């Protein structure tokens, strides 16, 4: 572990720059104190950073070495094509003497807000709004330890007085960051680390070398049922079942048209305010991702009719099963399962994919098709303050009360059923 000089001064309270100004100026948030092992935290706007070829090379090298399943979302390619680059900045930790500095850690940050919800009903959900900087991709790029986190948080709190928290959308139980936080009791110095949604089941798939090896993880009956679903859907539609892999810039229009057609007849259209994936509204961005080799989406057609889709991306060997949907008219034939089964076969046979990331939330298909089952959590590194303490504890108390009520209702329902059986 590196040890930092706690006597170094941060920006004084009377000279704290605004969020945008800090990055725009390429500000040094933790000044060098003269020792060879001194640490400096610098803020650099993304648009300036991508013009530094040495920095970009170090950034990409760090991305290749990471095991972060969400690394794509902190890549130069993703940020430059799918985000408002003017709002993104980098915090970079540098160590060493002035003329021999080494970058240890890069944190791509973007402003966002997080709601701590109090769901009383579907229509009544009061909330606290937390002003945040989001760490894109959920984990720092490069080396990170407790001291790095402590120094970085101190710098952010000093430089950004209007920010309530640092937000990480998904940090997995297997990550180095999770290990540090767990060991330290989910606290970095005076900064508590809150899991607003608790710990969630998280599933992903490590792809074997062959599709037969993948099928070998299932029992004989499961393998039969999976193949049967494919056969039944095909036979019900003139044996014209086709998996279309869309990964070229010229495919983007077909992909978007298919997603719209499927979504119009999906359950999402009736129940969700935003049924169409946000990325679909950025066709130029999707085309740019395709030109860089990241886009790899699929549309399943039955007798020429699109019945299911996945809007997905392949980055650094990790396939992101990002957005999915199916036409409800095909529901009796399990088009979602059929699509996933065929996609996995294609990834193993025709792509350089090593891992399939199913993303946040629990679902039966993730438990069935995945072969790694751990936990993840969204994290809020909350600025130490009375206001944040109150908001956090009120939300925590509400969540515990809600869980207790659910357990009591469930227990009572089981007892009623048992009494009925007697």
What does this 3D model show about the protein?
It is a single chain. The protein has 422 residues and is of the alpha+beta class. Helices cover 37% and strands 26% of the residues. The protein has 14 helices and 15 strands. The chain has helices at residues 19-24, 46-49, 53-65, 76-82, 146-159, 176-183, 211-215, 220-235, 252-264, 267-271, 283-291, 335-350, 364-369, 386-421, and strands spanning 39-45, 89-95, 102-117, 127-135, 141-142, 165-172, 187-188, 191-194, 200-206, 241-246, 297-302, 305-315, 318-326, 355-357, 372-382. The protein has a 15-stranded mixed beta sheet that branches. Helix 12 (335-350) links the parallel strand 13 (318-326) and strand 14.
List key phrases describing it.
422 residues; alpha+beta; 37% helix; globular; disordered N terminus
Layout of SSEs?
Layout: H1 19-24, E1 39-45, H2 46-49, H3 53-65, H4 76-82, E2 89-95, E3 102-117, E4 127-135, E5 141-142, H5 146-159, E6 165-172, H6 176-183, E7 187-188, E8 191-194, E9 200-206, H7 211-215, H8 220-235, E10 241-246, H9 252-264, H10 267-271, H11 283-291, E11 297-302, E12 305-315, E13 318-326, H12 335-350, E14 355-357, H13 364-369, E15 372-382, H14 386-421
Parallel strand pairs: 4-6, 13-14
Antiparallel strand pairs: 1-2, 2-3, 3-4, 3-5, 6-15, 7-8, 8-15, 9-14, 9-15, 10-11, 11-12, 12-13
Helix pairs in contact: 4-11, 8-12
């Amino acid at each position: 572990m590196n040890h930092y000089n706690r006597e170094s001064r941060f920006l004084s309270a009377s000279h704290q720059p605004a969020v945008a100004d800090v990055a725009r100026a390429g500000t040094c948030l933790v000044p060098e104190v003269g020792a060879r092992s001194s640490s400096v935290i610098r803020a650099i706007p993304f648009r300036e950073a991508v013009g530094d070829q040495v920095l970009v090379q170090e950034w990409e090298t760090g991305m290749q070495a990471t095991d972060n399943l969400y690394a794509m979302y902190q890549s130069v390619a993703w940020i430059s094509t799918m985000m408002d680059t003017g709002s993104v900045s980098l915090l970079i930790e540098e160590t060493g003497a002035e003329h021999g500095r080494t970058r240890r850690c890069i944190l791509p940050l973007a402003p966002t807000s997080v709601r701590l919800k109090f769901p009383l009903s579907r229509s009544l959900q009061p909330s606290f709004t937390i002003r945040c900087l989001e760490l894109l991709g959920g984990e720092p790029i490069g080396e990170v330890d407790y001291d790095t986190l402590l120094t970085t948080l101190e710098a952010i709190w000093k430089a950004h007085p209007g920010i309530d928290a640092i937000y990480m959308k998904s940090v997995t139980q297997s990550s180095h960051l999770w290990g540090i936080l767990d060991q330290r009791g989910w606290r970095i110095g005076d900064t508590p680390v809150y899991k607003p949604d608790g710990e969630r089941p998280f599933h992903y798939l490590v792809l074997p070398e062959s599709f037969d090896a993948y099928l070998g993880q299932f029992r004989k009956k499961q393998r039969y049922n999976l193949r049967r679903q494919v056969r039944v859907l095909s036979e019900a539609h003139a044996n014209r079942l086709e998996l279309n892999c869309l990964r070229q810039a010229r495919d983007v229009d077909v992909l978007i048209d298919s997603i719209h057609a499927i979504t119009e007849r999906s359950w999402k259209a009736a129940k969700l305010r935003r049924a169409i994936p946000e990325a679909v509204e950025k066709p130029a961005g999707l085309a740019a991702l395709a030109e860089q080799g990241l886009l790899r989406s699929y549309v399943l057609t039955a007798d020429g009719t699109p019945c299911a889709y996945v809007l997905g991306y392949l980055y650094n060997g990790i396939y992101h099963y990002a957005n999915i949907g199916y036409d409800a008219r095909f529901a009796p034939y399990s088009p979602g399962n059929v699509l996933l089964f065929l996609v996995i076969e294609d990834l193993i046979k025709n792509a350089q994919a090593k891992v399939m990331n199913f993303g946040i939330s629990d679902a039966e298909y993730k438990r069935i098709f995945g072969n790694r089952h751990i936990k993840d959590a969204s994290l809020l590194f909350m600025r130490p303050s009375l206001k944040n303490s109150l908001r956090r504890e009120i939300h925590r108390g509400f969540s515990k009360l809600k869980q207790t009520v659910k357990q009591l209702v469930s227990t009572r329902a089981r007892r009623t059923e048992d009494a009925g059986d007697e």
